[in-house]
Amino acid sequence: MDKARDYWLLLGLIVLGAGCVDGPLYALKKVNPYYRSQWDKDLQLGPTYEQRMAELNLLKEQLPTMSATQQTAWAERLATIVANDASPELRARAVLTMGAIQSQETVEALNIASGDDNEKVRLAACKAWKSQQGAAARDMLLSLAQRDSETTSVRKAAVDSLAAFDEAEVRTALGRLLDDSSPAIQFQVAQSLKTMSGRDYGGDLESWKHYLAGENIPEPPTESVAEELWNSLPSFR
Q: InterPro entries in the record, alphabetically (predicted)?
């Protein structure tokens, strides 16, 4: 389908689904007539970037109220944007929008997004996979988290999302990542393990390793704010 025509279909259906003939651009009725006229001329060339972003934002809000059939239909349209749109920002927004839709179309689109050339899209995919759950989401996040060729930001995002998958395979992988060469990855692993386990060993990586090995490691005592402040002061003795 032609991209411009597909976006106009997207716009029209969102407006109808929202029950408002003006959609999110209702305020345009009240702006200066000159700018409204200029906007109309721009629309003749196709939907603007701002308009497409606004419609995707509105769609994300409306999706929870839609039936499974409607959501699947939207997943197909959003998948087209993820696979073909020239704007990485719009691809990323489409990924985040469809993350809550449980469908095979979503899984296929997120697989594409996970290998996108643009980091913004891959970061969005990590967040969307967290909402998906399931084996496909877990496996892709594990792959991204352990991929040496991936950027640190994406790997951190994948590790962060893995906190939602409290499974033996995930804990084993996170245990290996405690030895990662990147301190940023090590820190994020500790944060995810804290979320999964309810334990807090802070940045004590050895304690985390012992805990994952099944040892009953006591947590360090938590200092009060006053104690932390006092202990941080230099000693003059």
A: ARM-like, ARM-type_fold, PBS_lyase_HEAT
Q: Which domain holds residue 52?
A: 48-56+66-132
DSSP code for 166: -
**Quick check: 203 and 187 in contact, CB under 8 A?**
yes
Q: Which of 132, 166, 181 finishes a domain?
A: 132
* pTM, two decimal places: 0.75
Q: Classify residue 111 by burial, with Cβ atoms within 10 Å: 0-12, 13-18, 19+.
A: middle
Contact partners, residue 42, CB within 8 Å, separation at least 6: 48
Q: Chunked in runs of 10, what are the mean pLDDT values of the chain (237 residues)?
A: 47 41 39 49 63 88 91 93 94 95 95 98 98 94 97 98 96 96 95 94 90 86 55 53
Among 77, 163, 170, smallest CA distance to 127 is for 163
